[in-house]
Specification:
Radius of gyration: 21 Å
Bound molecules: S-adenosyl-L-homocysteine
Order of helices and strands: EHHHEEEEEEHEHEHEHEHHEHEHEH
CATH superfamily of the largest domain: Aldolase class I
Shape: globular
CATH class of the largest domain: Alpha Beta
Distance between the termini: 22 Å
Helix content: 25-40%
Largest sheet: 10 strands, mixed
Strand content: 15-25%
Number of strands: 14
Amino acid sequence: MQSLQNLYGFDRGQLEQLFVEQGLQAFRGRQLMKWVYHQGKTDFADMTDLPLRMREWLDDHCHFALPEIEQQQMSTDGTVKWLLRVAKGDLVEMVLIPEKGRNTLCVSSQIGCVLDCSFCSTGKQGFNGNLTAADIVGQMVLANHMLAAKGESVTNVVLMGMGEPLLNFEAVIAATNVMKDDHAFGLSKRRVTISTAGVVPAIDKLREVTDVALAISLHAPNDELRDELVPINRKYPIAQLLRACSEYVEALGPARKLVIEYTLMRGVNDQPRHAQELARLLKALRCKINLIPFNPFPGSGYERPRNKDIEYFQTLLMRNGFTTMVRTTRGEDIDAACGQLVGQVQDRTRRQSRYKAAVAETSPQPVIVQ
Ligand code: SAH
């Protein structure tokens, strides 16, 4: 028997097409979305306004399947971390950060990561493939199940968990479409953020297909240092990255800004001269800056800066006119802090070297190694 299609991975356009291919009208796709995302019904038999014949067809060919919750941990500060088993059988993590008036969900987009940024623990695990769009949407569904008990829901999504979202382009676009769709989660485009280490051709492609918020993991004010911290910089250096960024933010319109993420590491990129150089570099870009104090993990070789250095770095950027926030560390006691999403997951390093050989030419298309 052919395997069932997981419809959590279908955005509105794809669902409409599914119905049209079965000889029905496109609006049936929107009806189905409302059953699933507004009424919480995933059993086709309950979808009483769909033609019976279509309900039977759906039952034979499709389903709604969620990742399995392997583990759930709650931090003393309210942050929740889940370890999830996804379609391929691997484990990934997601983190929910409740704050006053908002619930931010940090979702994973890949199983591990191929980019190998020098200070990120995900990179150290290697890579074992892309998540499906259904795996990504499923993370949101699961977090909402938990929040529903409190009468709440996810208000913001950041693709800042494991993986590089722009190397899993099609799935990430479909999943973020579902997050923004009024027939599904209905989040505003400003509340869905894709974070990237700088896959330039994919950023160029992005502005043609979406209008979500974009965060750039910059971490260094010059190519020499960035080459060392974020190796993809050797392929797409800062000038190319900033060109793509300004074109993206221009396409969004005058009211929108980009987010520049800058992880501060003691003695590496946290000095006043780095702040000055960063301010000069970003002068012409419509952006705000998020400073992330480095979250240490065993064997990282980096340290978190002293508080006074973090504060002075922020002051210098603010003096230069940049809105600059320092991200507070959450969920440290459960290893849910930024860049710590590793847990006890298996080593994938051998697979990573195979993957690297396979994508020597980085492409914005999804590349899956079997
Ligand atoms: N690949 C994407 C998204 C995942 S990383 C990207 O690079 O943007 C999400 C954010 O966490 C990035 O800004 C990353 O640089 C930051 N990060 C990774 N490891 C970290 C650590 N140990 N301490 C602080 N921030 C870290």
